[in-house]
Specification:
about 260 residues, 2 domains, 4-stranded antiparallel sheet, 9 helices
Length: about 260
Amino acid sequence: MQKSTYNVPEMDCPSEENLIRMKLDGVEGIRQLDFDIENRKLSVFHFGNESEITERLQSLKLGSKLVETEKADESKLDNESTAGQSKLLWTVLLINFVFFVVEMTTGLISRSMGLVADSLDMLADAAVYGMSLWAVGAAVARKKKVATLSGYFQLALAAIGLIEVIRRFIGMEEIPDFRIMIGVSVLALIANSVCLYLLQKSKSKEAHMKASMIFTSNDVIINSGVIVAGILVMLTQSKYPDLIVGAIVFLVVVRGAVRILKLGK
């Protein structure tokens, strides 16, 4: 058996881990995938040549690069619990979906495009976890169809959001409610941190994870950006910080949707 180690520079969120799992699903010879999100590394335990694995990883455009391939002892592989993984995926899916609803609702009420955009990012993560659950035991054609539909749906929502941002830039809009922006974003930040903690803790024999691990997530950075935008809205009494952050997050959602669409190819 071989162990191929990859550097994946843009694997900074558990949703990217799930994208990789789905992309490599069905590759003959793969026995186990070990993810180190903190150091952006992936170890693939497999039989045979690693060329197909490398090709599939590179197609996701995450900057994947093969570092080394070495012999590995099959007896040292961990036996992952499918039931345990499914329970964990359901947990993080529900957390992300609940906060999608919360942020979308409060974003519309507070007139904050930052919150609306962040809600779509939460929805994107929920979609990836949902696809991972749906993919268990599913035919390849079904997986590709679900990935394609999810990707186009997210692209459509992000496009509508960007159009709305442009309209608000041009038009005379009220200043968003910075108190709701900051309060809800803090809660979303906690939720994302909990998700990342749970996903990483499940891969560790220790009872805790390094605090720095949490802050490797793009989602956490996005939540922090909305909080900063809320503070700037409060200080400047201007709508523009919220619109700028909203536009950036919508573009992040577009990037994620494009990656998901690649799974459908």
